[in-house]
């Protein structure tokens, strides 16, 4: 039995007790976000509880999407699809793109990351096959030089998307993963 199986077993054991003790009841809500907002934030573990608490959000208040760097990599990728669905299916009227200071995607060394990939038995042939198929793996894995610029770029992707109504407000924010302090990069009410 490997560590991954043991981790899953422990999670499922806890889950069984969680359900039996009806601990889920305090989280019951509808699928519609009460505050009519969708948030794209980084997957950084420090933000799991801190981000919602720092914004006075409780379960059911917002749709929350997470990825590495809180970035929209493609205007027709899964992040934009989720934002569009939130707007049209769940009546969201504001979008918050929230990056954080000290993000691991900022100045990510893709060469070091590629070395780690190769060290985990992904062959150089696989990387070459992807490259020959038109996928620039280094560019795909590349982060960004500035959290603020990345947030501005993602805000612009949402604001200028052909399927986003012009009345949708899009904000760009940066949070401190140490204190929860939020700074405005793009104030959607004034842009």
From TrEMBL:
Keyword Secreted part of the UniProt annotation: no
Keywords assigned by UniProt, alphabetized: Metal-binding, Zinc
InterPro entries assigned: Carbonic_anhydrase (IPR001765), Carbonic_anhydrase_sf (IPR036874)
Binding site for Zn(2+): 42, 44, 100, 103
Keyword Metal-binding in record: yes
Example GO molecular function: carbonate dehydratase activity
Record's catalysed reaction(s): hydrogencarbonate + H(+) = CO2 + H2O
Parts of the chain that traverse the membrane: none
CDD domains tied to this protein: beta_CA_cladeD
Co-factor: note: Binds 1 zinc ion per subunit.
Domain of life, source organism: Bacteria
Cofactor annotation: Zn(2+)
One Pfam assignment: Pro_CA
The enzyme's E.C. designation: 4.2.1.1
Family per similarity comment: Belongs to the beta-class carbonic anhydrase family.
Official protein name in the record: carbonic anhydrase
Organism: Romboutsia lituseburensis DSM 797
């Amino acid at each position: 039995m490997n560590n991954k199986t043991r981790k899953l077993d422990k999670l499922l054991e806890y889950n069984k007790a969680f359900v039996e003790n009806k601990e889920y009841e305090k989280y019951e809500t509808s699928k519609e976000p009460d505050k009519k907002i969708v948030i794209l934030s980084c997957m950084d573990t420090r933000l799991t509880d801190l981000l919602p608490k720092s914004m006075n959000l409780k379960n059911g208040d917002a749709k929350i999407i997470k990825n590495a760097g809180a970035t929209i990599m493609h205007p027709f990728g899964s992040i934009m699809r989720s934002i569009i669905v939130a707007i049209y299916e769940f009546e969201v009227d504001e979008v918050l793109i929230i990056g954080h200071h000290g993000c691991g995607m900022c100045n990510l060394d893709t060469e070091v990351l590629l070395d780690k990939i190769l060290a985990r038995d992904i062959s150089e042939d696989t990387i070459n096959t992807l490259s020959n198929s038109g996928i620039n793996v280094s560019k795909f894995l590349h982060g960004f030089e500035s959290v603020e610029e990345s947030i501005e770029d993602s805000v612009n992707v949402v604001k200028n998307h052909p399927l986003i109504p012009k009345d949708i407000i899009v904000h760009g924010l940066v949070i401190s993963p140490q204190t929860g302090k939020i700074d405005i990069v793009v104030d959607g009410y004034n842009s």
